[in-house]
Amino acid sequence: MSKDLLIIEENSDLRKCSRLMLEKGISSLIVRDRNKNLKRIFTKTDLLYAYVENFAGEHVIREFMTKRVLTVAPDEALHMAILLMNSHKVSRIVVVKNDHPVGIITGRDLLPASTVFGTGTFGSYWTLREDLIEQRKKQAFIPSGMKAIFIASDVMTPNPITISEELDLADAGYIMLRNRISGLPVVGSSKNLKGIVTKTDIVKALASHA
User: Fold this and answer.
1) Which one of 3.30.390.30, 1.10.8.50, 3.10.580.10, 1.20.1630.10 gives the CATH number of domain 7-58?
2) For the whole model, what pTM was predicted?
3) Average model confidence (pLDDT) for the chain?
């Protein structure tokens, strides 16, 4: 568990909260009242609601989307997707075919395969046995044995919801909230992949306001 909790007052400015989350690389803050009593947890999702309700029409998606998107092909070995997510510290990767998004893989999608792989993303491991952890590290680039069983299309969420780079950033937030997801592939006029927009990108937009 995390012991260094960040606490804010219940009347704190939303933009200040956004900047604090971005600066510390966290997704939630503890809120306390004027009597120093802990009241609730304030999350990126709460900031998403605030942006959708108060900043519609302020920005288009291409202004804040992440243009450098990590991708894999549908028939690519799953361990390569895990390796990319781990190396670049991202929580999702887009599956593309002919430059068109056909699926998306998140940490949630990887859970069914965890009993086979025995490793998690971001350098974490589902096993505590040090000998197995060392073995997994050494095999990171070896597409052999059980690692070759799964390919990206086996675990991806197919037909991901996409959004145009020309639409309002608040529209992206609304779609995320309605579908309980944290990111959307962004496409151009020919439906080719142009980027990805996430909750964090919308928090950055909120933080940018003076």
Assistant:
1) 3.10.580.10
2) 0.78
3) 84
